[in-house]
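Ligand-bound model needed. uridine-5'-diphosphate.
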Amino acid sequence: MTARILVVFGTRPEAIKLFPVVHALKADPRFECVVCVSAQHRQMLDQVLEIAGIVPDHDLDVMQPDQTLDALTANLLTGLGKVMDAVKPTRVIVQGDTATAMSGALAAYYRKLPVDHVEAGLRSYNIYHPWPEEVNRKIIGAMASLHFAPTTTSEAALLRENVAADRVHVTGNTVIDALHWVTAEIERNPALASGLADLETRFAGKRIIGVTSHRRENFGEGMEQIAQAIREIASRPDTAVIFPVHLNPNVRKVMNERLSGLDNVALIEPLDYPHFARLLAISEIMLTDSGGVQEEAPALGKPVLVMRETTERPEGVEAGTAKLVGTDARRIVTELSTLLDDKTAYEAMARAHNPFGDGQTSRRILELLANEI
Ligand code: UD1
Ligand code: UDP
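Prediction:
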């Protein structure tokens, strides 16, 4: 009997981390894969769907400009519930900690459908950092049938919360599968990542810092501080900043106001995944508050300064390839300057370190799913 697996996602990072699972499910006759996107993100989701060649079976198209968490969550819950009633899946898969993932898990639970959690057990132990993701993933963890923990650290967190040991599996993180896949695609067709060529020429000879930022808890003063730090570091003649700016208006407004027109700063539109992989490759340092970039940058041997107070991904910090620097402008500039000016400090961080998997995570997940059917 084939099992009908409904894969639910809605934002850029979920799409990146679930396309390898969708590819694997679609290639495996034991499963029928049905894809439902909430489109909590629109353009940034569509960039991933296109590159991964995924055409969703259901698209709720819920994104509204500057959407509130309560309106978004209400729409997601009712919309995803209706899709589940129509599809009647055997199991539902969600990933991570977004509003879509939490609502997808809840809608499945309300129908007593088993819901499996990809990237389970990440914990910062601070419900406001990151907000609201820390609570979203705990809610999903309370309902999940299978918990696919990326590392033994996340496995241990779930066991401490009394999740049954036989439901928790260390699988690695599918982000490494995604990174391997996109790297192979670029090798096959370099044009997929050639769109940064003009910027690479403009900044030739400079040391590039790649930046991303979008955390809700950094809105307001945090974003102002981040912009100030970028202004200061970009005043160095040897340094350039490439910053694909998230489409959230709370990010764009500040960054456009504070950073437009600077010689050494390129504020650009969100990059599709192959181009972001290229940005990682040409950057000397990544400065970010993103979750996924904390996994990708260490895997590629790029030091990553994390503009947060806490992280649910301590593996990079413990290995010395990631460092928490908060959002104080002075601190960020000091830490960046150290990496730029102190070769020993740079080399201590610039080691490839990959606790997040070997690129075989989706394959493991499929075998674990197969045991359930
Ligand atoms: C969401 C997730 C966050 C995740 C992040 C990844 C929640 C509560 N937040 O945050 O966990 O880390 O995505 O990027 O689930 N927008 C566009 N086009 C897009 C995407 C966003 O215009 O393609 C704008 C819209 O105005 C939208 C706003 O950004 O209302 C916010 O989007 P939303 O998904 O609510 O929050 P993010 O900050 O993107
Ligand atoms: N990313 C991308 N283009 C960009 C910025 C990021 O493809 O312009 C990718 C990045 O490689 C990572 C993911 O998006 O895999 C991270 O998404 P985001 O920072 O939006 O969310 P988070 O990981 O913090 O939830």
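The pocket of uridine-5'-diphosphate (ligand 2) is lined by residues 12-13, 16, 212, 214, 244, 270-271, 273, 276, 290-293, 296 (CB under 6 Å).
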